[in-house]
Amino acid sequence: MLNRTFNKQRVRVMKQYPHSTYEYNIFKCFWKLFLVGYALLDHKIPKYRRNLKTFLTDAQIVSEALTLNDELFLSYEIVHRIHNYIINHDVLNLTRFFNKFEELKQNLINARRRWTLENKNRDYPLKLRKLDNYIIIALHTLTSKTNKQGVLNACSKEYQQFNNGGIEGINRRIKLTELEGFGITNLDHLRKRLILQINYRVERKKESKKIK
Fold this sequence. Notes:
It comes from Ligilactobacillus salivarius DSM 20555 = ATCC 11741. It holds the Pfam family DDE_Tnp_ISL3. The chain is an all-alpha fold and 212 residues long. 57% of the residues lie in helices and 3% in strands. A hairpin with a 4-residue loop joins strand 1 and strand 2 (54-56).
């Protein structure tokens, strides 16, 4: 979810520049580097970048791109900070981060209410306007009442042995069966075929031969 929202934010910044320019290419051609933490990027070996026509390391590419937009730089820091908390099962710092975000969100709401009461209109100043940022929208979703506890549980070591691999595997088999069974008009037949695909392997006990 965070990677997807960051990519949307990156594309928005990329479209601010004309095509085939240095800035446009650095956002478009090296999008995978932005999904890697800065400490994990290569800082030593510069490579020739055909689209940029120069030698740069992976870290230099990300650093140059983020200096072009402060909002994208902040989004990059937020996304990878949350990633580190989840990978390291750091529930305490993740909880503090979410609580701080909720506190700032509530302060913004209160400030907008005061502005409305004092000025009797909704023409908020720039600092009180709603942030049009995909990462902020994603954080609203993660910190909502229905999702926050689930995110924290997924981050804790107690639940690290559980994952959705089984569900994803079943979804993959369903999609493959739908492709192979294209043209099946009876939904019940498709359902039975899916059940047979999922439970295809059946353990059978080998009958022992009696010695005469």
